[in-house]
Amino acid sequence: MVVLRVPRVYRPQADTWLLARALHEVPSLRGGRVLDVCAGTGALTLAAAAAGAGSLTAVDLSWSALMSTWMNCRLRGIAVELLHGDFASALRLPRFDVVVANPPYVPAEQTSGRGAALAWDAGHDGRSVLDRLCAMLPDLLTERGVGLIVHSAVSDPQRSLSQLRGLGASARVVATGTVPFGPVMRSRAEWLAANGFIRPGQREEELVVIRVDRTSSPVVADPA
Question: Quick one: pLDDT at residue 112?
Answer without folding.
Answer: 62
